[in-house]
Amino acid sequence: MGKTIIEKILGSHAGHEVKPGDIADIEIDTRVARDFGGANVVKNIRDNGLGINDPSKTFFTFDCNPGGSDQKYATNQQICREFAREYGIKVFDIDRGIGTHLAIDDGLAWPGSTFVSTDSHANILGAIGAFGQGMGDLDIAQAWANGRVWFKVPPSLKVVLKGTPSPAASPKDITLAILKETGANGLLGYSAEFYGDTVDALDLPGRITMASMVTEMGGIIALFTPNKAVLDFCEKATGRKIEPVVADPDAEYTKTIEIDIEGLQPFISRPGHPEDVVDVESVKGTKIGSAFLGSCTNGRFEDLKAAADILKGRKVAPGVVLKIVPATDEVWKRALDEGLIGIFKDAGALIGNAGCAGCAAGQIGQNGPGEITISTGNRNFAGKQGKGEVYLASPATVAASSVAGVITLASDIPGEPVLFKTGDAGKEAPVAALEVEAGLKPVSFKGRVWIIREDNIDTDMIYHNRYLAITDLDEMGQYTFDNLKGWEDFSKKARAGDIVVVGKNFGAGSSRQQAVDCFKSLGVSMIIAESFGAIYERNAINQGFPIVNADLVSTGLESGQDIEVDLETGRIILQSGDEIDGQPFSEVQMNIYRRGGLLKTASGVSSRG
Predict the structure, then answer these.
(1) Of 458, 476, 456, 323, whose CA–CA distance to 384 is shortest?
(2) Structural domain spans, the chain
(3) Residue range 210-216: average pLDDT?
(4) Among residues 98, 203, 405, 525, which is most buried (max CB within 10 A)?
């Protein structure tokens, strides 16, 4: 039987053939921690008495807060710098840009290689046919100390794009069309391979755009077979000949999805949900207060060039702020050399240092209460880029809208910009602290349930990125769900031993470990969901925090009732006496849970790498 791309890459790095569902110990070629997760990785290494497996394969990338403008970020960055000096680890400091892009441009990753980072969009590496994965602090510490980490081989599906989009459609528009088709969890747990004439012709920036947003579809990774241009780029970056990994002709896929993009026109995502995709025409005329060009999805030179072609000789509308952040310093320099920076400045745009920008709350790109932003980013979750509302669109649509003062197409910019008539403001409610009690780690549980009848609860709703600099677990609990509408006071009502019950795709989005640790801080005993986001599931397992896959939302269970749960059997007994079969812990999961976490031995004493 033939192999898919993911099966070949993971098999070659496990040292044996693998199939979907196998749990394999994978060698990691490149191991990265960013500035927000790096300090916690260092803490895990030091607290558990671990070493560094291979400093030459180990890196820090400071891309969340390139200015170090927040005191806690600056502290975390300095902790990482000192650790790097101690172990001889290379730091891509605040002047370099987004780590996943640097990995491609500097040849740290190549087709067929494996790459992990504390960045949930590390699957961008799929753009060059490499395996990239965002992971939490415990996973990265394990990779740094041992050079390997366990991974469950995902099933593969094939996505075939049929037809030719209109000349007005960019790779971002194609990506939004795919997201519209799959929804927020349509690729949940899958490795997706993309095919079709349009895919074959995509340049590297276009592939990066598409690969980055598979995270917003719930996917593990989107993999592209490198074309000649991508191979030439990677060979130049690495300085060596590369043989790409390609799927066998008889490779088996769980399913094939065909998406018609014939004549595709520009698309846009409405605020709050990346998958809420509509054509731009349907929201044209919506007044905006700001526009953002950048992020790991659309911060390459070609993205900036598409915007500059529209902005040349024009001005940003009065009252609108256009914020531009190139992905890397090399992109910044090229934009300067080729005159793009001059065009942006003449148009009245604000240009920031290379980095992640508004996605990480550590740079320009945030908005205020009532502010409407059109952005080239990959996420527009509530609160992700501030207190306002965010639409997601292509560089061309963002540039055109910034000039018009309202959402519009590049082909339909009005002669005069639309001006503001009124403005709104808002206030942020204070969050109260809560003392919590430490819980035990039994195999059987009985507890009061909280029923949250929602799917796709993302990590910004669970634990917002404005608290990411917090490393003390005792401080985290008070912020649990404070960005989930209707549940902002959860931390005040929760008791030790409570059980949280939710719908599908719980923990979608970021790789932040805090979205697990906040429940542990409160003493919540476990989470039961119909399905979990892939990174979130790993983080919970590696922290030794119980999670169970089961659909309890549709059972009629109500908040305040008691249930019993057995992790070994997966059996759940409702207060009514009815029994539900959940998914029991796997052997690996139970092993990690019983010893107190990924980095602990069976006796609770840390192992040394």
Answers:
(1) 458
(2) 5-260, 267-412, 444-594
(3) 93
(4) 98
Task: Over range 371-395, report the average pLDDT.
Answer: 90
DSSP 281-332: GGGTT-B-SEEEEETTTS-SHHHHHHHHHHHTT--PPTT-EEEEE-SBHHHH
Nearest to 296 by CA among 221, 207, 367, 225: 207
Fold classification of 5-260 (topology level): Aconitase; domain 3 (3.30.499)
What is the sign of the dihedral through the CA atoms of 220, 111, 64 and 271? Answer: negative
User: In the structure encoding, which two tokens stand for residue 596, read together?
Assistant: 């107190």
pLDDT tens sequence across 103-135:
999 999 999 999 999 998 999 999 999 999 999
Name 44's Cβ contacts closer than 8 Å, sequence gap at least 6.
50, 137, 138, 141, 599
Please tell me the pTM assigned to this model.
Answer: 0.85
* DSSP string for 114-130: EEEES-TTGGGGGGGT-
Residues 390-447: tens digit of each pLDDT: 999 999 999 999 999 999 999 999 999 999 885 454 444 443 332 323 334 789 999 9
User: To 10 degrees, what angle do helices 329-337 and 301-311 make?
Assistant: 40
Is there a shared CATH topology between the 5-260 domain and the 267-412 domain? yes
Q: Given phi > 0 = left and psi -120 to 50 = alpha, else beta, which region is 10?
A: alpha
Q: Which helix (H) or strand (E) holds 256?
A: strand 255-260
| Superfamily per CATH, domain 267-412 | Aconitase, domain 3 (3.30.499.10)
Range 312-345 burial, b when 16+ CB lie within 10 A, else e = eebebbeebbbbbbbbbbbbbebbeeeebbebbe
* Helix residue ranges per DSSP H, 426-560: 459-462, 473-476, 490-493, 514-522, 534-543
Closest CA to 449 of 494, 515, 503, 507: 494
CB within 8 A of 155, min separation 6: which ones? 20, 21, 189, 190, 191, 253, 254
Report the alpha-carbon distance of residue 574 to residue 501 in Å, rounded. Answer: 12
SS3 239: coil
Report the distance separating Cα 537 and Cα 152, nearest Å: 11
Distances in Å between the alpha carbon of 244 and those of 169, 454, 466, 470?
A: 29, 41, 40, 41
Q: Under a CB-based contact definition with an 8 Å cutoff, are residues 136 and 532 in contact?
A: no
